[in-house]
Structures are given as C-alpha cells and as structure tokens.
Amino acid sequence: MNGTLRLSTVLWLAVIAVVGYGMFQVKYRVMQLEDQLGRVNRSIDADRDALRVLGAEWSYLNQPQRLDQLRQRYLTLVPVQRAQLGTLDQIPFRPGEQGIAPEAKPSRPQASPVALPGGASLASAPSGGTR
Asked: Which pTM does this prediction carry?
C-alpha cells in the first residue's frame, strides 16, 4: 500500500508542478499583453493629441478673414465674362471624327384605328412605346 501511496503522491506532485508551470507562463504572457496594451493606448492618446492640434491648425488656416487676405495678396481674380466662354463648335474633335450625326429614329408602324361603338374610331398607340 505504501508503494501505491507513493506513486499517487508523485503523480499529484507532477500534476501540481505542471499546473504551476502553466500558471507561471500564463502570468508572464498576461504581463506582456498588458505592456503591449499600455503601449497601444499611449500611441492612441498621442494620435488623438496630434488630431486635436491638426484640427486647431486647420481651423486657423481656414478662417475666412485670413483666406480673404491671401486672396487679395496672391490672386487677381475678376468675374468671368461671357466672351471668355467658348462654344461647342470651338472644341476640336478627335482625329478621325468629323462630327456626330444624329441617329435616325426608327419609324414606328402606324396602328390601325380601333372601331368604337356608335361608328367612331380611335387610333391606338403602337405597343412598346414610352410614356
């Protein structure tokens, strides 16, 4: 009986050692992941701060008064005159094209009149037409 007691004790000690080693590994893996999470969170905070700074700079750069001063300093804009606009005839065609001829519309067959009671007739529209 002592032999079986000792064997079971050794087995339990081995199980406890394996579980202890596994817990040790899990603990250090969790610590690594927490460190990584901290780095990611710090990076996110830095990016948010940078976005706030960029948003403030964008607001400053897009102030209407500032843009108007820059326009007056660097641009000499005048209203567009009608003479500056061209016509479609002035647009050159691609080589080989001399213009686009309007497509001939297919002729629709004439529908025969429909006789109505009382001797009147009504011409019906051809089928397949658009409304």
From this structure: 0.44
